[in-house]
Amino acid sequence: MKRTSIHDFDLSLICDYFGRLERQGPGSPESTIRALSFIGDIPDEAKIADLGCGTGGQTTILAQNTKATIIGLDICPDFIEKFNINFKRLGLENRVKGIVGSMDSLPFQNEELDIIWSEGAVASIGFEEALNYWKRFLKRGGYIAVTYESWFTDERPVEIEEFWLDAVPKMSTIEHNISLMRRAGYRFVAAFALPEECWTDTYFMPQKTIQGAFLEKHTGNKAAEAFVEYMRYEAALYSKYKHYYGYVFYIGKKCETPSL
Ligand code: SAM
After folding, report:
1. How far is the CA of 53 from the centre of ligand 1 (A)?
2. Between the N and C ends of the chain, which has fewer C-beta atoms within 10 Å?
3. Nearest atom of ligand 1 to the alpha carbon of 124
4. Of all atoms in ligand 1, which is nearest to the CA of residue 104?
5. Which atom of ligand 1 is nearest to 103's Cα?
6. Would 212 be classed as within a structural domain?
7. Averaged over 93-103, what is the pLDDT?
8. Residue whose CA is closest, atom 12 of ligand 1?
9. Distant-in-sequence, close-in-space partners of 196: CB < 8 Å, separation ≥ 6
C-alpha cells in the first residue's frame, strides 16, 4: 500500500496545524544565535530577509540579536498575520515586517540585502535553485544562512530514504550541499547539524499538545486525520533513524567579485 505523501495535503490544512505552534520546523534560539555568530558584526542599517519565516520563531531571535531591518516572507497569509501581530506586541513593528510572498519570486531589488536567512523552508523550492536565484538580491560580500534537510551518511535504510526522498527529492549529503553552495558563487563559511533537541523539544513535543484540538476542529475530516498520522509517523521515524539525517545550517558569503 502506498504511504501518504506530504504533497497530498492542502496548504490551508497544513497552515491551520502549524499556525498553532510557536515554530513550524526544527530549530532553536541557540542554533539561530550560533549561525549568526559566523556572520560577525551586523551594522544597524543592515537589511535581512527571513524567507519561509512562518510565524517568526527564528525572526524573533534575529531581531533580538541585531538592530537590522528584517523582512519576513512566507506563502501562508495566516502565518504572516500572526508574525505581524507578534512583532507589534514586541514593539518592533518599525523594523520587522512580515509580507506574504513566494521564495521563488522575491520582491527585492538586486543587491538590496545584507543577509538572507531561511530555516526549514528552502526544500520547497530546492536548495540549489534557491542559492542560485537568491544570490542576485544579496550585496557583494553578503551572507546566506539556511537550514536544509541533509543525509549524515552515504547510505541509509530504505524506509527512511523513501520517506525523505518523497518530501525532499534532492535531499543530499552535507559534503554535496557544500559543493552546491560553492558552485552557486558563495564562499563556504560554516555548516553544523542542528542538535536533537531542535527536533524533539521545539518540533515534535509541541505538536503533541495541539493535535487533539486540531482533530476536534476537523472532526470527521479524513485528510486532517491522515495529516496527524503523517506527522506522528515523521516523529517515529526520527527517533528510529536520527543518526542518518537531520537539518544542517549552511552559512555562505557571496563572493566579492562576480567571477569568483
Ligand atoms: N522558518 C520557520 C520555522 O523554522 O519555524 C518555518 C519553517 S516551516 C518548516 C516552512 C515554511 O516555509 C512554512 O512557513 C511555509 O509556509 C513556508 N513556505 C513553503 N513554501 C514557500 C514558498 N514557496 N514561499 C514562501 N514560503 C514558503
Report:
1. 6
2. N
3. 20
4. 23
5. 24
6. no
7. 98
8. 52
9. 242, 246
Q: Which are the contacts of 205, defined by CB distance < 8 A and separation ≥ 6?
A: none
Provide the residue range defining the domain that includes 85: 27-196+242-254
pLDDT, position 3: 78
How confident is the model over 53-80, as pLDDT tens digits?
999 999 999 999 999 999 999 999 999 9
Using alpha carbons, select from 114, 71, 119 the residue that is nearest to residue 92. Answer: 71
Task: Give the residues surrounding ligand 1 with Cβ less than 6 Å away.
Answer: 23-25, 27, 52-54, 57-58, 73-76, 79, 102-104, 119-121, 124-125
Overall domain count for the chain:
1
The answer to whether residue 140 sits within a structural domain is: yes
Q: Is residue 75 part of a domain?
A: yes
* Rounded CA separation 205/211 (Å): 11
Q: Which amino acid is at 194?
A: L
Taking CA atoms only, the protein residue closest to ligand 1 atom 20 is 124
Q: What is the reported pLDDT for 260?
A: 44
Candidate of 24, 100, 199 to mutate for ligand 1, largest count of ligand atoms within 8 Å of Cβ: 24
Ligand 1: residue of 7, 53, 116 to mutate (most ligand atoms within 8 A of CB) is 53
Residue 121 falls inside a structural domain: yes
Q: Determine the distance separating the centroid of ligand 1 and the alpha carbon of 51, expressed in angstroms.
A: 7
Cα–Cα distance for residue pair 207/200, rounded to 1 Å: 10
The CATH number for 150's domain is: 3.40.50.150
Question: pTM to 2 decimals?
Answer: 0.97
- Complex ipTM value: 0.99
185-203 residue pLDDT tens: 999 999 999 999 999 999 9
- Helix boundaries (H) for the chain: 11-18, 29-37, 57-65, 77-89, 127-134, 158-167, 174-183, 197-199, 205-217, 222-241
